[in-house]
Amino acid sequence: MNPQYDFTGQVALVTGAASGMGLATARAFAQAGAAVVLADVNKDAVQHAAEALESAGHQAIGVVCDVTDEDQAAAMVQSAVHTYGRLDMAFNNAGIQAPPSDAADESAEDFDRVNAVNLRGVWAAQKHELRQMRTQGSGAIVNCSSLGGLVGLPERAAYHASKHGVIGLTRSAAVEYAPRGIRINAICPGVIETPMVTGMLEGQAEAMAEIMKQQPIGRLGRAEEVAAAAVWLCSPAAGFVVGVALPVDGGYTTH
Description:
CATH class: Alpha Beta
Keywords: NAD, Oxidoreductase
Number of helices: 8
CATH topology: Rossmann fold
Helix content: 40-55%
Protein name: SDR family NAD(P)-dependent oxidoreductase
Strand order of the largest sheet: 3-2-1-4-5-6-7
Low-confidence stretches: none
Mean pLDDT: 94
Family: Belongs to the short-chain dehydrogenases/reductases (SDR) family.
CATH superfamily: NAD(P)-binding Rossmann-like Domain
Largest sheet: 7 strands, parallel
InterPro entries: KR_dom, NAD(P)-bd_dom_sf, SDR_fam
Shape: globular
Domain Ketoreductase: 10-190
Radius of gyration: 17 Å
Structural class: alpha/beta
């Protein structure tokens, strides 16, 4: 049973909103009464997702945004404010995987690409969200890190560097902006059943078996479970929660 929130009159922004955890979170915000701005690099998918929410009676728009481009991140926030007049909540979720690689063989291109999306993209989105929220004197931001922001694993150095960076970015901004009425936290999903994870594990039966050994709960997570945590962190129920890196991982990081 999910808690009930009332976000009527509030505006939420979600990046990476066309599928997976982002789409589930956009739906959760909308179901709680928020107007939702869905942003994604995939134009057709994000427009379809926004239209589906509108058809279900919610307020929603789709915005095309490549978060590696700061100008696009700024325009994304401007679209939210132009359309709905304010910005109250944001889930900076857009992210990509990097191909597994021996740390001695990892290419600079792969390192730069994964950090451009996962770390610089979160930095750019958060920067421009904060510019709006500080004028309002209120707001809540959740940045998407990963269990990879809390632990190290072989052949994942670049990806884990990006996700560790998100936690540092979050904590520093959180202590800076808490006195201004803005709460910033991070969420650290474990292995969640999303298109990205499915694609990563296709044909990797041994990798999946190894992952499941580390899952005390005995299953993969669901996108809706991540959404529930993200929405809670944005809600008044988490009003005294600042600068955390919340694992939503079925117990993976307890090892």
